[in-house]
Amino acid sequence: MGDGVKRITDYEWEVPVGFTPGMRVPGRFFLSEALRKSLESGAIQQLANVATMPGIVKYALAMPDIHWGYGFPIGGVAAFDISTGVISPGGVGFDINCGVRLLATPLSVQDLKNRRELVERLYQAVPTGVGAKADLRLSGRELEEMMLAGARWAVDHGYGVPGDIARCEEQGAMKGADTASVSQKARQRGFPQSGTLGSGNHFLEIQEVKEIYDQKAASLFGVSRGQVAVMIHCGSRGLGHQVCTDHLRNLEAATKKYGIQLPDRQLACAPITSPEGKAYFGGMAAAANYAWANRQMITDMTRKVLVKLYGIKYEQMPLVYDVAHNVAKMEVHRVDGKEVQVCVHRKGATRAFGPGSPDLPSEFAETGQPVIIPGSMGTPSFLLCGTAIAMEKTFGSTCHGAGRVTSRTQAKKDVRGRDIRDQLAREGIIVRAPSEASIAEEAPQVYKPSEEVVRVVDALGISRLVAKLVPLGVIKG
What we know:
Layout: E1 6-7, E2 12-15, E3 27-30, H1 33-36, H2 41-50, E4 56-67, E5 74-81, E6 86-87, E7 99-108, H3 115-125, H4 140-149, H5 151-156, H6 163-166, H7 184-190, E8 203-212, H8 215-221, E9 227-234, H9 237-257, E10 270-271, H10 275-310, E11 319-324, E12 326-335, E13 338-347, E14 349-351, E15 370-373, E16 381-385, H11 388-393, E17 397-399, H12 408-414, H13 417-426, E18 430-432, H14 436-441, H15 450-460, E19 464-476
Parallel strand pairs: 3-4, 18-19
Antiparallel strand pairs: 1-2, 2-3, 4-5, 5-13, 6-10, 7-9, 7-11, 8-9, 8-19, 12-13, 14-17, 15-16, 16-19
Helix pairs in contact: 3-10, 4-10, 7-9, 9-10
């Protein structure tokens, strides 16, 4: 694990100042003994590197799904003082606002007599895979509006109901989006991809609510045991990737311009208040809003399939919640006894605001924010809620998923997609994907066990278990 790393509690570990030259704060990560064997030393080094960045406050943090990433470790959280700190694309990732939403239905598992047909119809309705394109053809003005209004743009254009907006983090649109900071190349990539699932670990999954751990919170969130739910996991597609690529070049130059010393060029950054920092934030927020609109449009496609196949009403499928897990946001947190405004980077980490947080809808004032943690293909996903402990320990953050332990290239060498599909079929899980290679890349064994990851965050108290959901049908990108 590296010299000097100290165990603080059963699940907390500290990387002390001095582990890497120039560290301004300690690193802190959360892990159980069972997850230690999959911990990469490179990810701990990346966490220490983040701790060297100007203006970082309190700790550089990593969740139990920590693994090696671009610049920041995936599972990384870092908060930077608004006046003295920096903003970095490495702390957000290339898939800006990759996130997940959960849709409730009035159906029970017994109602799904034709599950294979459901999976096939959804696969045909939602464009899926590398380079997938939607039937919708946006005008330049419509794309501009989508990048500013996010999920609300989609609802206003008939892709949902007004109640969906309140159930999205940031109400489905970040303030501060600046479309002037989105290049023409990014726009060209975004035009045909709104309302598409994409590839990689993105998915649409039919699930059963298998267990309820907190009946009061589950009832408030609208889930019950035996209920069928739908989980949607995707992001900002090619538009977001291009926004990141474009601004990385600018911020690499800005790092030199402002004399910022970094141990890894992948941490390229600029002062939050600088022209370069403001431009990246504006472009990132625009891409994040595009992603919220994208998930909203896929929600509409999903609802329409279920309406047609099962005769239920569109309004009977409320959105439980939608969370981002690749984004940087301006938030107020308590640091050293004072409330300060910071730029919180969550890179493969989920916001988990606790009870009474002013940013949440009033209906969640008592429970805290719904938190959605997807499993890997064939493994359970979980619904949790945010906590006061998360506000104190992690800037209101928790894990985002299971965390990879094997690269996609290695996965394709180790397993065959056909075997995984057949294995899951024997378990009663129907899988539909563009190719067998895409199934092999996302095989359950290439991820950490989701149950152990969420057990750790629940034990730490940085989010609290509400419900467990198991897959019935999976559409992989």
